[in-house]
């Protein structure tokens, strides 16, 4: 049995003033624990997007007609609100699970020895994005599922996924200055891929905002464009992203690039093919809810794949402290 250290008054005051520092002084997580904490935050960022899509696809967007309460008289959903109220309120509760996952990532990063400030900052960036998106989600409800606010809600979730993916990658790297693994021409090609992917995701939000899944059975405002035309533009952008990904893989093979970028590009290409097949099937079957939900999941995986390709173009080994050379050591000895 390990004896638990008694908590003194000074310890209690220290914990209140700076709880993260208090925990860091008494706990040192392993590198694997920090990686898993960062991965948990990334997984929950994807889960909250998919469950938010389920709210929309089941017509439960106004299941809780107000915010921050579920109704004017109740903080939680009531039995009278039925299925839609339970779905919407359940999604709101998942935000707390997401906050817990992000908080766990922050605590693990802050407690790691040596302390890596960049990881802690990435954790806090996720926290503030989650808080901002929670407020935006409330605004979405208060304005009756205005499609532009819904699109912004999804794009902010994508920003959260970006930061979470970056933090997860950084837990697998060192703190040395990044060293490029490919030439500038390949890096430029990847940035074209990133821009095309951003346009692809943005077009997808317009398809959703103009399409048949308004998010509620009541009269909900839609983006005043023909959603089928935007869906065709979305498909064209998808083909551009697929073409750029294949071209990138071909170029990486031609220049004998390291295996890291090659694997990440291959993974992205496979995800894009699956997402493309799913997109065409849902288009020609009049957007069934289950396929649309899978397509939203695929959208998150595509973006994570793009971010991982971008990050694979450089390596960051562990920083090594400068050691005195033979001449320096000899001078120190003489001194």
Walk me through the topology.
Elements: H1 9-17, H2 19-26, H3 31-57, H4 82-111, H5 117-142, H6 147-170, E1 179-180, H7 184-210, H8 227-254, H9 259-284, H10 289-311, E2 314-315, H11 326-334
Antiparallel strand pairs: 1-2
Helix pairs in contact: 1-2, 2-4, 3-4, 3-6, 3-10, 4-5, 5-6, 6-7, 6-10, 7-8, 7-10, 8-9, 9-10
Task: Please describe what this structure looks like.
With 335 residues, this protein is mainly α. It has eleven helices and two strands; from the N terminus they run H-H-H-H-H-H-E-H-H-H-H-E-H. Helix 5 (117-142) runs antiparallel to helix 6.
Based on DSSP secondary structure assignment, what is the total number of beta strands? 2
Distance between the termini: 51 Å
Secondary structure class reads mainly alpha
- Cα radius of gyration in angstroms: 24 Å
Q: What percent of the residues sit in helical stretches (DSSP H or I)?
A: over 70%
Task: Identify the notable features of this structure and list them briefly.
mainly alpha; 2 strands; flat; 1% strand; 335 residues; two-stranded antiparallel ribbon; disordered C terminus
What can be said about this structure in brief?
The protein is mainly α and 335 residues long. It is 71% helix and 1% strand.
